[in-house]
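Hi L., both proteins are below.
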Amino acid sequence: MEQNIKRIDACFSVTGQIGQSDLQTLAGQGFRSVICNRPDHEGGSEQPEHTALRDAAQALGLSFAYVPVATTGATAQDVEQMRALLAQLPTPVLAFCRTGNRSSKLYELATRGARSAASYDVVVIGGGSAGISVCASLLKRDAALRIAVVEPSAEHYYQPAWTLVGGGAYDLKNTVRPTADVMPKGATWIKASLSAFAPERHVVLLSDGNELAYQQLIVCPGLELAWEKIEGLEDTLGQHGVTSNYRYDLAPYTWELVRTLRGGKALFTQPPMPIKCAGAPQKAMYLACDHWRKQGVLDAIAVEFNLAGAALFGVSAFVPALMKYVEAYNATLAFQSTLVKVDGPNKTAWFEVTDANGNVTRQQKTFDMLHVVPPQQAPDVIRRSPLADSAGWFETDPATLQHPRHAEIFALGDVCGTPNAKTAAAVRKQVVVVAENLIALRKGAALPLRYDGYGSCPLTVEKGKVILAEFGYGGKLLPTFPLDPTVARQSAWWLKASFLPWFYWQGMLKGREWFTDCSGS
């Protein structure tokens, strides 16, 4: 089925409109009951009536119920009917409406008070770089704060080093530590994931069926890598010469391919923006080319960089310096060329190419090595929530990092719908803004800090040299050091490969706020 199924807890999931043909798939996935929350005829003639779905479901041995909820919201009668059904129907249950939102809200209303609840001063959604760092910074300011960090993963990764792993310049095992080891002392780790928001009640619903109440909420679950949006990709990743530095287990395969390739064609891709670490797609190419040049095989390898956009880099000041490396490596740039399909065994890739007139054609290209950067999006629970912006990212004031409609909610990191670069360096500055502003809010004071859009992209143009691109909103250059930022330097390589990884583990995750000056209002 095309719809994404959103798991609320172990017994209940929601999705958008289904058809009769989807029911067999649902039965095969283990669902035992289906609830229709979409009124008949709401979607016109294309929407199947609930009676047809009921008959088809029952023929497959599925229980079926009809609790139509108007777009204006659930009535008290709807809630009571849903509550009664949940006590009777075999689980797991799948409920649907047009998008799944009404079903999710109805479930939240019907089970209110039935879940175990815990209350915290601050709840942090996500235990990645943003979540752990902001938690540490808050506790540094007020050790008495009761903070819960909601994070399902048992492992915590330093992702910026995966590019170096793919270039043979970093040890993979140094990019991961147990989440328990980086969780700030004084914080409570909730090993679960977010299922839904209930901002009117200052509550979040979790995948384990529990809910957490908060005074302030910080949303930083990161983003999702949408591998499935490229046809055939998931079937061939990690084999047939297809790799990506965007996954922990694949970065070593990138280096294996680079190290063993002696000739042929190497394709590197970059999807439509926004993505995290927008320079990473070309960094993989530069490090590979530098190795091939040093091995004396670069002339035997046709290198091509396929970008969905129309520019090599989003901040024009750095393009001339980058172009010198593109030319030195004799790499071909294919602009407005988006990877849409991969056939790994036959080493073939297809790209949708847009010309100057907006016409789109599909081009087929063969490869010996293919480095893929997948399309990226906010997590499903964010995209489907009432707190998202029109593009599906978490709605966030670009200066205060506060939600425009819910003053008690802040966000930072890759999930934000702000126009800054999605990098760990951006998080480093955002952490201070959120921590200071949240503490001020708790005291009833004006929010003191404003985020300037700072982000950094250390562009590894060759092994041993980096162009340290630092910039803010609107592409404004914001260099930390009094040097020409467009020049590749050995000192910047040391910063990227040695200092920043050390500082991440020993500083940033422990509430140390170096190089984080932010302006006031």
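That was the first. Here is the second:
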Amino acid sequence: MPCSQTSSPSTVTRPTAAPPTPSEFFRRPSVTDTVLRAGAEVERESAPVRNPYTGEIIASIPTVGVDAIGSILQRARGGRRTAARLSRASRASILDLASRLVEQRAESFAQLIVSEAGKTITQARKEVARAVNTLSLSAAEVRRNAGEVVPFDSFEGSENRQGWFTREPLGIIAAITPFNDPLNLVAHKLGPAIAGGNAVILKPSALTPLSALRLVDTLIEAGLPEDVVTIVNGDADLAASIVSAPDVRMVSFTGGFATGEAISRTAGLKKLVMDLGGNAPVIVMDDADLDEAVVSCVSGAFWAAGQNCIGTQRILIAHQVYERFRDAFVGRTALLRVGDPLEEGTDVGPMITREAALATKAKVDAAVERGATLLCGNDVHGSLYTPAVLEGVPANSSIWQEEAFAPVVVLQPVESFEDAVEQANAIDYSLHAGIFTASMDRALAAARLLEAGGVMINDSSDYRFDAMPFGGFKYGSMGREGVRFAFEEMTQPKVVCINHLSGQLNG
């Protein structure tokens, strides 16, 4: 069904400049090569990194197998000792300088994100700006979150005691990141971990490792000792061997449910922080500003080609305004330009692979076969997928129950506010939710009743500020991200208590 303006890779006139080569991204050899410096050589292979839009190979990244785990852990142990010796002032200075360097090279980072992840250039620039902020917030957290005084002498039996607690590093943290935010989600792992004095074994997505490599290179340029972060590229068996290693004291993972469940079974006795996805609902009440709601929901649904764990997927609309909202939403979706992510006017770029686009089409086709009505989209051109809007979707279909992670939206009329909340909560997991209403009472009721880690009032579900706590309710989320909250997850309190014995501890 026609929807949106689409241009395929074969018909778009591309810029004359060739895609940048890896040597243009990194001044040093790939950080991955440093994995084996401290240990015995093992056989390595390489994996191609492809531009999602053109299919071109833009880089080849060395990969290692499980036989490298000894060398990886040996290097990480050295990094742990190095990180522990860094003063708070040094950590803050490194993160501040790295933030400034990323900002100075913002356009180059944005071009890299477009090349490997397929985000539009506008979306990539926003991701870079957020990563700059994430690193800056991490530097501020080093200076702010050092611990607290404990008022021992306020309690009977402890009158002669005084003390405090500090926040100390966990040691080695394994960080596993997805493809959809290849720079900022890596910054959300590395920034707080470095701020807390930890070493990191970083396994970025095999589909989008280049932004992670360049960020680590930038941190090293800013003064981070090279062994503090160990980047590895390899398969699921390598990841399992890292996750299960007793030396690793925490796993920070953002990705799919199946992988998250496998990590939880493999990790053993260590801390887990995981964001595994969502299926975000947005409620539109009959007193809402419909124009604003439509604009926000279109953006929230189709940003980054819908490959966004807090992207709007289910819109629950008061029946009194359902047809008005539906027609306006479909009309605005039809104006979106789908195509070359490097062109300034493109609204929706490619999905990460053609296979992902075809799988999305298959899910939508299955929903239509079960009675849903396709209002718009569901066409595939290479890795491009035209945004799909459906109504009448059965409540037990996968498009309603599961995360689509694609530019697909379901519209559903509701009879009342209570009905909307009930349907919004009828999913096993929930990161964010939203509501559009002019009623403060109703907005606050939604904030109280919606089972989600974040409730956005008069905004789409996909709003995220990098300083706020981020994580979900119910199934599919453990712990919290957001710089301050990740810092606290990645550190541990140590109590120091002084007992003032008579005649001892004299100054």
